[in-house]
Amino acid sequence: MPKIQRVHPGSLAEELELAAGDELISINGQAIRDIVDLQFALATEQMELEVRKPDGEQWVIEVEKSYDEGLGVDWENPTVDRVKLCHNKCVFCFVDQIPTNMRQTLNVRDDDYRLSFLHGNFVTLTNVKDEDLQRIIDLKMSPLNVSVHTTNPQLRVRMLANKRSGEILNQIERLASGGIEMNTQIVLCPEWNDGDELDRTIGDLVRYYPAVRTLSVVPVGLTKHRRGLHSLRPCTPEESRRVIEQVSEWQHRIRAELGVSFVHAADEFYVLAGMDVPPGDFYDEFAQTENGVGVIRTFLDELEESWPNAPRSVSGGGARRVAVVTGVSAERTIRQSLSRLDGTPGLTYEVFPIINDFYGHHVTVTGLLTGTDIVAQLQGKVGAYDTILLPDILLKDEADVLLDDYTVERIGAALQKPITVVPATGTGLVYGVLGHTTHLPPRRRYEATLRSRAQMEPPQAMLG
């Protein structure tokens, strides 16, 4: 039974005097099994809520609201019932590579098709039953994000260590026939699912276009905390170039036939290979920026578009000295972008690429940096700077906290410097370095992510 964890200020729930600990028994007489039932039940203008208070008292509340107005609460469980956990033992599982002393939420291995639909999580479909597939089709829960990795049944069973994982093409066939769209991904592991196996997977999946609308190829992420997993190694620069060439060949072939690229290599391959990312029109609708595909291109194009209206001087007209924090893989892009500001009167800046000692040096993306490494590597180096610039992509759960539970305030106190948090966009970077942060909307994410989310809105019945 759904239990309220928190009521948002100014929400409909607050107006109805609902509170933390209240249990939702039914809406319009319908019992609520999970978040999907809840969202459908909320998609109405007139409701009768049956609620049980912590002392056992039951309330029946009649309310009129707008069709797409939600209650404005956080539930104890994100799926209202229980999250479907992962039953695989993937050779590359990132959760198994997280330090054991991390907060518990980072160690949860979910594999829940409801979270895929509602929040964009990738799922393997290995724990989805026939009735679940039919429910997805009946409720038009589209798009889903599906981790495929390989369409070779025997290889997929080996990689996921789950005997049901070889059914993936049958599942995709059924979902596609039922009108469900899917964004798919391959975590590329050298000597496992690359080369001919990669060709096979791309060829199998493109046959389902447009139901399978995109396919991303991302390099395996390896930390120094691997526990009980197969021996894997990262992609080399030469292997990264081969993957890019292989994907590019498929893109040209598919674009000639379908008018879209369909398959995309993650930005990390281009960083590893020392190559420039493709132009924007090769990324179609930028549907997988949250999976590291097209982020660099989005960053550069967003800055190019906003540059004509960007400030050309330091805020206040005085001197400004800024230390810019980034991950190793983004260093080249950040330096390239900031070169536009070279020669700005009064401005001094330096880019500090932070090496990921916490997870291991194979982890180079900015979003996985920790406060531990930032403080350790900037100690004694930022005394001459007025502020330290952090991209908001470092912060988790819409709070000022990093992966290792360091807060922004704690970083500032340790380094004895003010911290400026800016959106992880080209505009955020330039405005932040120049000190014009009051002109930026707070916590703004990648523009392409917002555009793709707008194109991926759920059906009206799922709003609430």
Task: Write a compact overview of the structure shown.
This protein is an alpha/beta fold and 464 residues long. 30% of the residues lie in helices and 17% in strands.
Descriptive account of the structure:
By secondary structure, the chain is of the alpha/beta class. The chain has 3 domains: 4-75, Pdz3 Domain (Roll), CATH 2.30.42; 95-292, pyruvate-formate lyase- activating enzyme; 304-446, Rossmann fold. The protein has 15 helices and 15 strands. It has helices spanning 12-15, 35-42, 113-119, 130-138, 153-160, 168-177, 196-206, 237-258, 267-273, 295-306, 331-338, 371-378, 408-415, 426-434, 447-455, and strands at 4-7, 23-27, 30-31, 46-52, 58-64, 73-75, 122-123, 144-147, 182-188, 212-219, 263-265, 320-327, 347-354, 387-391, 419-422. The strands form 4 sheets. The protein has a 5-stranded parallel sheet with strand order 7-8-9-10-11. A 4-stranded antiparallel sheet has the order 3-2-4-5, covered by helices on one side. Helix 8 (237-258) packs across helix 9 (267-273) and helix 12 packs parallel to helix 13 (408-415). The longest helix has 22 residues, at 237-258. The chain starts with a strand and ends in a 9-residue tail after the last helix.
